[in-house]
Amino acid sequence: MIDFKKILIYLLSFLLAAFVAFCFWKICFFIIRHPSVSEIKKYFFERFYDHSVKITIPEGLTLKEIEDKLKTSKLWGEEKLDQIRLSDFKEQLPINFLENVPENASLEGYLFPDTYLFDLDNSSDQIINKFLDNFIHQIPAEYLEEAKKQKKDFYQILIMASLLEKEVPDQDERYIASGILWKRISSDMYLQVDAAVCYGLTGDLSTCSHLKYSDLKFDSPYNTYLHKGLPQGPICNPGLEAIKAALYPEKSPYWFYLSDPETRKTIFSKDLAEHNKAILKYLR
Questions:
Q1: Rounded to two decimals, what is the model's pTM?
Q2: Residue 145 belongs to some domain of the structure
Q3: Which of 55, 56, 78, 228 is the most exposed place for a label (fewest CB within 10 A)?
Q4: What is the residue-wise DSSP string for the chain?
Q5: 17 with 61, same domain?
Q6: pLDDT (tens digit, 9 = 90+) per residue, 2-36?
Q7: Statement to judge: residues 237 and 200 lie in one domain
């Protein structure tokens, strides 16, 4: 009488032995072709460990803050992110993103806020290229056309967006603040944007909580109390909503604004007298 149970056991044993033999042959073949110990370690490491890292970059981070997040995730070495020049990657960016950008401009403003998936073995150039690729794809074509229609460079829009990102938390209020700042520029007035002064002091807005009078006298290309017009470059990496607000400013009777430190609401004023009253009420 045929013992089907034994046959099944023999068959499974044979298949298991064949599988083990096949795996052993694959390993031996790999070792013969790749005698380097580091290659062998990498071969097995990649099969048993997912070496990709997901990282989220929120809107408004500076290059220094992004570098810290990359380092925390073991993606970045000792190279200073804020020392890398945008001109080193100009071949990757369309010309309309680079019009009138200073030759020594950093990557500030161009590392688009989003969630990214990087490999642990990505080089710094590969990481930056992924940021820039996303930046190009996220900016709608009509934004570039609108900037051109307004006779503005996209770099100017990006700088303004970075100011709005750091100065005004509420998106609806950003359109009004955008109108104020563009109006002040066209009227040859100082912008007096505190966040820009902070950036000029340290390059890291997280370390600048309250400006002193002496800070307002510190001369830098970002001190909008001493220099008229937009600062030298973006002060952070703004999101799409801030870019939209910079591009589509809202007209209003206001010329001044400040942020209530408790509610984070923006207080708008029509003239200097009204603004000074708001300062006494909310900031003293």
A1: 0.80
A2: no
A3: 78
A4: ---HHHHHHHHHHHHHHHHHHHHHHHHHHHHHH---HHHHHHHHHHHHS--EEEEE--TT--HHHHHHHHHHTT---S--GGGSBGGGGTTTS-GGGTTT--TT-BSTTTS--SEEEEETT--HHHHHHHHHHHHHHHS-HHHHHHHHHTT--HHHHHHHHHHHHHH--SHHHHHHHHHHHHHHHHTT-----HHHHHHHHHS-GGG--S--HHHHT---TT-TTTS-SS-SS-SS---HHHHHHHHSPPP-S--EEEE-TTT-PEEEESSHHHHHHHHHHHT-
A5: no
A6: 555 666 666 667 666 666 666 565 555 555 555 55
A7: yes
